[in-house]
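Render this sequence as a predicted structure.
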Amino acid sequence: LRGRLDGDPDWRLAYWSVLMGSLVLAFLYGFLSTMAFKGMFAMVPLFVSGVVVVYRCALAADGERRSTVLAWLFTGAVCLAVGSGSCSVRAYRSYGDSPIDRLTAEFSHPRFAGIRSTPARVAVLEGIASYLSERVEEGDFLLAYDDVPLLYYLTGTRPAIDHSWSTRRILRVMRERSLRRMIAARRIPRYAVQNLERSTARNPIHAFVSERYTREIRFGRFQVWKLRDEPPAPGRR
């Protein structure tokens, strides 16, 4: 095959046609899926199969017809890429949300301008964003744990621990270290928000919150906690 690519311009055209067609599919897949990186690798078998198809078809054609065969193959590859992309749009599912036809409600929060979701999700996020915005100032510390980094963006707050995306996938020792640093730096926030669907009892961050905070209000799967008022230490007022 390498010899044919070096010596025959028709074979070079076939090779680059299949390659570009595969890249077009990978590009469309990247827009239509949150797993774009894996989608790029999924195109490799398609590319190899395409080279074999082009090789067989062009080999069966004589010299005069070979350019025509290659042109039709390239056109078919482009049509396949566009067609598959158009069909995928109908089945596209937003990351962490519902299919497009269910995203009928629009957010009123300025930081969500132009974004739609389900009515239930809009009500929950609008509710918790409004509730917290009335109780914290921009630049204040907030403790949002178990996959809710979006709350920092919505409220303009800063993460009290070392990272904004506190997830159960982080090693326990790393979460314990973050808590110690938060306490040492006196960044204990007045409010914490827990994602009830992702939390576990063994999470040291949740153990800390359960010990020092009280439940205040719940919005869907999000539990808002407020720091308990601790009595002053002896000798202090």
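Summary. The chain is about 55% helix and 10% strand. Residues 29 and 35 are 8 Å apart (CA to CA).
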